[in-house]
Amino acid sequence: MTAETKRTLVMVDDDPEDILLVKTAVRRADLPLEVVSIYDGDALFAYLEQGNFPTDVSPSTPPLIIFLDLNMPRLDGRKCLERLKNNPDWAELPILVFSTSEAPDDIRRCYELSANSYICKPDDPQALDKILSTVYRYWFGEVRSDV
Question: Cα–chain-centroid distance for residue 54?
Answer without folding.
Answer: 15
